[in-house]
């Protein structure tokens, strides 16, 4: 049944029977109980905490179960500067979350590196590693902006359909994102072929340089 199909309810059943689509009831129940895995990494976290407190109170949207745990979390709320040191932990936690799962990048730092974009220790946005669903601009975003971003996430869920979007019901397993390794710099294992090719080219260059040097 498409969303536009209208079904008449007989008079005697008015007020007792509601007819809807499976997608709508499925999304309604999910969007009204989105529990965040909080990930407060810097100053933006203060605004996130403020949004959870009584003045703004995101429990009005069914989001009050905010814990630093992937267990039963529906989305990861990344608020603050994402350092290279934190990325392996964030990716590991994301992998541990059950599907369906979402990611919200709160603030300029989480979305794109913010004022620390060129910094040696900061990644230019968590979307280099995790699939971000909603970006919230601001440095820091106000509690109203965060609420607006969370409503956008609810709207995204409203638009999903079990047939097209619910890849979590498919038989094939969802592959985890390889956890990056923090060495002298952050190594994204998905780029391993490029890293290997660059290292091999450098070795060849060095060896040919040495050979030329020994002929002189
Ligand atoms: S976006 Fe601004 S307020 Fe938020 S963590 Fe970065 S520097 Fe701090």
Distance between the termini: 81 Å
Which ranges are low-confidence, i.e. pLDDT below 50, for 5 or more consecutive residues?
A: none
**CATH topology of the largest domain, which one?**
Rossmann fold
Gross CATH architecture of the largest domain: 3-Layer(aba) Sandwich
List bound small molecules: iron/sulfur cluster
Report the helical percentage.
Answer: 25-40%
Order of SSEs, N→C? HEHEHEHEHHEEH
Radius of gyration: 23 Å
CATH class of the largest domain: Alpha Beta
Strand arrangement in the largest pleated sheet: 1-2-3-4
Count of structural domains:
2
What's the story with the biggest beta sheet?
A: 4 strands, parallel
Please report which band the strand proportion falls in: under 5%, 5-15%, 15-25%, 25-35%, 35-45% or over 45%: 5-15%
Classify the oligomer: single chain
Category from helices, strands and their pairing: alpha/beta
Estimate the global geometry from the Cα principal axes. elongated
Structure explained in plain terms:
The protein has 216 residues and is α/β, with parallel strands linked by helices. It folds into 2 domains: 11-171 and 178-182, 3-Layer(aba) Sandwich (Rossmann fold), CATH 3.40.50.12280; 183-216. The chain is built from 7 helices and 6 strands. The protein has helices at residues 22-31, 44-52, 87-96, 107-112, 143-158, 162-165, 192-215; strands at residues 36-40, 75-79, 102-106, 134-136, 181-182, 186-187. The strands form 2 sheets. It has a 4-stranded parallel sheet. A two-stranded antiparallel ribbon has the order 5-6. A hairpin with a 3-residue loop joins strand 5 (181-182) and strand 6 (186-187). Helix 1 (22-31) runs antiparallel to helix 5 (143-158). It is elongated and about 100 Å long. The chain binds iron/sulfur cluster (SF4). The site of iron/sulfur cluster has 12 residues, from helix 4.
């Amino acid at each position: 049944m498409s969303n536009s199909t209208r079904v008449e309810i007989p008079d005697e059943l008015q007020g007792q029977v509601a007819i809807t689509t499976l997608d709508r009831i499925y999304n309604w129940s999910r969007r009204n109980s989105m529990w965040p895995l909080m990930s407060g990494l810097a100053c933006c976290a203060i605004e996130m905490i403020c949004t959870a407190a009584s003045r703004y109170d995101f429990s009005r949207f069914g989001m009050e179960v905010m814990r630093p745990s992937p267990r039963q979390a529906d989305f990861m709320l990344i608020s603050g500067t994402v350092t290279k040191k934190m990325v392996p932990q964030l990716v590991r936690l994301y992998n541990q979350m059950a599907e369906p799962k979402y990611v919200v990048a709160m603030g300029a730092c989480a979305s794109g590196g913010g004022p620390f974009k060129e910094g040696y220790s900061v990644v230019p946005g968590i979307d280099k590693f995790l699939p971000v669903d909603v970006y919230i601009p601001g440095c820091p975003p106000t509690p109203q902006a965060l609420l607006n971003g969370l409503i956008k996430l609810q709207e995204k869920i409203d638009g999903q359909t079990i047939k097209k979007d619910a890849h979590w019901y498919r038989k094939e397993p969802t592959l985890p994102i390889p956890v990056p390794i923090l060495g002298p710099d952050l190594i994204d294992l998905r780029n391993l072929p490029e890293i290997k090719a660059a290292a091999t080219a450098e070795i060849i260059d060095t060896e040919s340089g040495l050979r030329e040097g020994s002929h002189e």
